[in-house]
């Protein structure tokens, strides 16, 4: 395929995407396929000769569409949103086309430098403490990572490196294994699995602490655990705090947790994957109160800030710790400016190479403007509030967690079985897609505002289906009860 | 920006990319900027109101282009190639547009399933042992990772998990730290830094072993090290072998190393980031001989197989070890088919979310066909051989490592200083871009065939520059010598 054909095919693909997104409401959000469906549809070896691209285009509807989960359907209410905006898509087309890999400053100066400035733009929108901003501090800065998981892991690994370094300095005979056996990380039972997984990868003990009635990890809980561990001779070193948990969008109490981390020389990482984006709106900024105590902080513009996957924004207070934790000098990568004024981002991340991801962040922030991005957040929150009001108006239901942002967690009052049946019926019906969850043995349904195309009518549509299925569940359970009564 | 505007802007961006790539030969490969150049060119906060996209487009030439390293210039001969083909770009446009995240099978069945089949297509092209293929074994399979670094790390972490599990089974009182202090990984001094870094992250000791005169890690070297470590009571558990080292494209001797790994219950991971792609040509397949002993294997289609970054192909012999190493059950992600017949790829990788990257692999393999991809490899190797013949014809130069694929490592005979000056002059001249390297205190220049646009005329052009700069170096050094003689 030469450049001329690419111009034609590129237009065709852009139109395919535009058509897909414009008509996505007509598709059921979840595909109706069973595992292994795709293997039967295509050959089991690559063709020897190149094919005409028309064949490839023709196969999209035949092979891909039947097995695609439609995350941008207005009836998709599962997990959390995944952003998908047109300016971001344009940024990715450009990033791909330039194809310049930015592992060091010299390997693509524009990539490193735009990223630093964009992370500052975003940091200012979030009113982050100035020690996180590259332009306003000597120590801090931001980077685009591929995921919250990678961010939580990098933070834990940096904290681990630092605590081992300090301990071995004072106890030169201590082996790294001996240090490791004493290290303890903490997180809440409601936080994302990525924190626990980071600890598994870091091979450190992690204590999963209980949340309070509002789903928050509280200072007293952490303090008690830290004291217990210290009394045993162990070394608390890392807290993975969560702002906007996946299960029900609850918020750890950073203001209480932060000083405990500071007092105990623990690294506080804040995972605000979903909820963090809302903090560009002044009225939601309070949920980050206490962030001034954090050593690192991450949120996903690829979730709720109109930037396509992948784009996790991570800030650190001390970028030297990031650069230094796993620094390996590599002759082929030396350049006159190594580390002089600009970071070599390869040190900050797990992968070595990196795409030019700040382009899409730049395009999005300029195309929407801060006010435009705030409007998308506010619209989603208002739709969630609308759904909440529908749930509250039906006395058979209860709300499981305070609705602060775009997620409504709810259930039929009563036992879990009833709610599992409700979920099953909604899934079988197939017109909307939600994912259930469970906290402290309480099963509930999660209704997330995901697609940007979702409107009030879609929320009403979803609620009508939930009610209809609830009617069935209740009728079934009454039927059974009546049956028992009749025959009893 | 609505879908209609996206259709227009998308065409504009596709044309911008096509124009850029068609005229890239007119740009110097390295930008002429100093660190901090970009910050002066744009505002230091995001705009409050959204801007017209024309402003953004206008800024590309003003802000980005001056600081861009042109990896796809025919005069770019640094590092190793980064692929950038039109079919791959189309795949990425589609992947972005669909915006469906494939962390579990259910979250996007098409994503998981196409990936499995594409990894089998590619595995068959490489004549991998059938135990790596999803369709031909019960235990093996392939996945697209974001980088070779992530692959080497995941392999090391799986190996670590497994060895700890086994040891603790027989020694229940042994702590993980006690096991860790005994674990030893190995790699060659010539391998990519990602292996050493994986060990640092995994917190295990790594021994960096010497290579032979041809740059290969040999069986006897590994065997000696393993014996030494066992004699000390340590536990060898991982070898990061390298096929096509970054420094000078040398090859570890897999046939010798493999059986030693097997005999000592060590995980053999093969990092063939660059060179692996060449093995789709039968005449180069021999460099993978011995791969049947490996537990995991990775290469980068985003380097030399026409697939844009990121796309690292990784195969494992035992996918249960990958799924199980850091398995965390997560209620919200349960689906009826969890792990039944299809993997949930979130377990196999560091990040949680994942883009639909197999689309670009599919598009590339179909558009080029196996024979088309083989032709791109053969063309690059033949250009490298041509450059080698030019070097060999000039008796002032020497070739530093056998030219097997697309990299030529060479130097002026004599001391390092002369070669450092040569490199400096080429850099100052700026018409071509190469990166120097150093092995065993020998400094040399690396000439890699990178861009698909590079032709024989570009190779001749580069050689003319190298010769002209070499003339200067030699004249300078004669002048200095004469000067010393005169005044001495």
UniProtKB/TrEMBL annotation, chains A, B:
GO biological process, one term: carboxylic acid metabolic process
Keywords noted in UniProt: Catecholamine biosynthesis, Decarboxylase, Lyase, Pyridoxal phosphate
Modified residues (N6-(pyridoxal phosphate)lysine): 303
Cofactor(s) needed for function: pyridoxal 5'-phosphate
InterPro entries named in the record: Aromatic_deC (IPR010977), PyrdxlP-dep_de-COase (IPR002129), PyrdxlP-dep_Trfase (IPR015424), PyrdxlP-dep_Trfase_major (IPR015421), PyrdxlP-dep_Trfase_small (IPR015422)
One Pfam family here: Pyridoxal_deC
EC nos: 4.1.1.28
A single GO cellular-component term on record: cytoplasm
Superkingdom of the source species: Eukaryota
CDD domains per UniProt: DOPA_deC_like
GO molecular function: aromatic-L-amino-acid decarboxylase activity; pyridoxal phosphate binding
Similarity comment text for this entry: Belongs to the group II decarboxylase family.
Assembly: Homodimer.
PANTHER family, sorted: AROMATIC-L-AMINO-ACID DECARBOXYLASE, GROUP II PYRIDOXAL-5-PHOSPHATE DECARBOXYLASE
Name listed for the protein in its UniProt record: Aromatic-L-amino-acid decarboxylase
The species this protein was found in: Elysia marginata
């Amino acid at each position: 395929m030469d450049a001329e054909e690419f111009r034609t095919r590129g237009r065709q693909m852009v139109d395919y995407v535009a058509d897909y997104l414009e008509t996505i409401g007509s598709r059921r959000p979840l595909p109706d396929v069973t595992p292994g469906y795709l293997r039967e549809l295509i050959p089991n070896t690559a063709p020897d000769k190149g094919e005409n691209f028309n064949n490839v285009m023709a196969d999209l509807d035949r092979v891909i569409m039947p097995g695609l989960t439609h995350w941008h359907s207005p009836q998709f209410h599962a997990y959390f949103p995944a952003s998908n905006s047109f300016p971001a898509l344009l940024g990715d087309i450009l990033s791909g086309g330039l194809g310049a890999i930015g592992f060091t400053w010299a390997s693509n100066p524009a990539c490193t430098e735009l990223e630093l400035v964009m992370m500052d733009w975003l940091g200012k929108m979030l009113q982050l403490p100035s020690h996180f901003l590259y332009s306003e501090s000597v120590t801090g800065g931001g980077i685009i990572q591929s995921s919250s998981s990678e961010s939580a892991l990098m933070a834990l690994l940096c904290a681990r490196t630092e605590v081992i370094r300090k301990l071995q300095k004072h106890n030169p005979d201590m082996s790294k294994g001996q240090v490791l056996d004493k290290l303890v990380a903490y997180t809440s039972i409601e936080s994302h699995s990525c924190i626990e997984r980071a600890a598994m990868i870091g091979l450190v003990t992690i204590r999963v602490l209980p949340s309070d009635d509002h789903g928050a990890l509280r200072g007293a809980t952490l303090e008690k655990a830290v004291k217990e561990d210290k009394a045993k001779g162990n070394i608390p070193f890392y807290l993975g705090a969560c702002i906007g948990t996946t299960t029900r969008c609850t918020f750890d109490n950073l203001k209480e947790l932060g000083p405990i981390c500071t007092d105990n020389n623990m690294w506080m990482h804040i995972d605000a994957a979903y909820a963090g984006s809302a903090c560009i709106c002044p009225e939601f900024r309070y949920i980050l109160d206490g962030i001034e105590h954090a050593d690192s902080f991450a949120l996903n513009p690829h979730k709720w800030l109109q930037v396509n996957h992948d784009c996790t924004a991570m800030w650190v207070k001390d970028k030297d710790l990031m650069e230094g934790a796993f620094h390996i000098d590599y002759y082929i990568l030396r350049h006159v400016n190594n580390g002089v004024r600009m970071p070599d981002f390869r040190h900050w991340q797990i992968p070595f190479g990196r795409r030019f991801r700040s382009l899409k962040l730049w395009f999005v922030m300029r195309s929407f403007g801060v006010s435009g991005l705030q409007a998308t957040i506010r619209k989603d929150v208002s739709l969630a509030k609308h759904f909440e009001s529908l749930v509250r108006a039906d006395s058979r239901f209860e709300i499981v967690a305070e609705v602060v942002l775009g997620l409504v967690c709810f259930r039929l009052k009563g036992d879990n079985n009833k709610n599992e049946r409700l979920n099953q019926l909604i899934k079988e019906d197939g017109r909307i897609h939600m994912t259930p969850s469970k906290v402290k043995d309480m099963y509930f349904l999660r209704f997330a505002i995901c697609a940007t195309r979702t409107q009030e009518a879609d929320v009403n549509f979803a609620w009508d289906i939930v009610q209809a299925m609830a009617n069935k569940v209740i009728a079934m359970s009454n039927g059974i009860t009546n049956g028992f009564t009749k025959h009893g």
